[in-house]
């Protein structure tokens, strides 16, 4: 695990949380080691909860045992700005922003997961968040294990009653007729639900509350500024987070029943594996 220390630095954990993370990681890997191959493993969790770090570490650990393993983010399947502008014109202006179900190339995500399960090579995509555009895909490879991480993995569609009540000011003012919410929900009920079903098992990183999610996501944005010299301002980030609030909050009610493994995080991101 030569890269473990480097990856843990991304999480900026204190000493106790880092020790807890190492223990959780070993427990989780031990539980996953005997999965039949090929397999698609899902990692769900709110922004800033450490999904990409966990996915990369697990892929590294599986690779060290001789498996062909790789990680991809649901974010890597985001549509281009031009494609989202078209959605914004045809469906709802809020779809210009990447994030919610309906703003991904979900057909490609499904095809890639099915290809892995069929033993067919896949060229996994990449998305450049600083440019807000797709980047060059990785070379095609045949995988034993594909780890998919994403902020809303496993979250099912909501009821009409749940959709009717706005969860924040954005929904109340920019989606007065619920058209955006209904479109996102239709996507969840259709191709996204099919995608979720391919992820066995599903791991959920359970954040404590919405305030923590926003704080952790702000830490990520600061790192982006430091590494790339560009990113969102504080006001832009606050606005950016609003479309994610509904499904993130829904996950706390729904994913305890959906997830195979739950990693509960406290406010210092100290993890505890629950099964």
UniProtKB/TrEMBL annotation:
Keyword annotations from UniProtKB, A to Z: Kinase, Transferase
Top-level division of the source organism's lineage: Bacteria
Gene Ontology MF terms in the entry: kinase activity
Name of the protein in question: D-glycerate 3-kinase
UniProt organism field: Rheinheimera pacifica
Lineage of producing organism: Bacteria, Pseudomonadati, Pseudomonadota, Gammaproteobacteria, Chromatiales
């Amino acid at each position: 695990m030569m890269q473990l220390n480097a990856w843990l630095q991304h999480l900026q954990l204190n000493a106790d949380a880092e020790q807890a993370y190492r223990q959780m990681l070993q427990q989780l890997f031990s539980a996953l080691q005997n999965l039949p191959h090929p397999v698609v493993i899902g990692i769900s969790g709110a922004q800033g909860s450490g999904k990409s770090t966990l996915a990369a570490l697990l892929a590294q650990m599986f690779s060290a045992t001789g498996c062909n393993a790789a990680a991809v983010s649901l974010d890597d399947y985001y549509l281009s700005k031009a494609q989202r502008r078209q959605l914004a014109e045809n469906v709802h202006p809020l779809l210009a922003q990447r994030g919610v179900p309906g703003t991904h190339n979900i057909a490609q995500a499904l095809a890639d997961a099915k290809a892995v399960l069929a033993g067919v090579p896949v060229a996994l995509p990449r998305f450049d968040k600083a440019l807000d555009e797709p980047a060059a895909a990785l070379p095609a490879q045949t995988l034993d294990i594909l780890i998919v991480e994403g902020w809303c993995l496993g979250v099912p569609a909501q009821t009409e009653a749940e959709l009717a009540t706005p969860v924040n000011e954005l929904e109340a003012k920019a989606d007065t007729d619920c058209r955006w919410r209904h479109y996102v929900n239709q996507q969840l009920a259709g191709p996204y639900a099919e995608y979720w079903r391919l992820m066995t098992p599903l791991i959920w990183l359970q954040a404590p509350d919405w305030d923590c999610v926003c704080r952790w996501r702000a830490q990520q944005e600061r790192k982006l500024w430091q590494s790339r010299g560009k990113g969102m301002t504080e006001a832009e980030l606050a606005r950016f987070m609003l479309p994610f609030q509904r499904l993130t909050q829904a996950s706390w009610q729904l994913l305890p029943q959906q997830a195979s493994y739950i990693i509960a995080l406290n406010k210092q991101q100290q993890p505890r594996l629950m099964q």
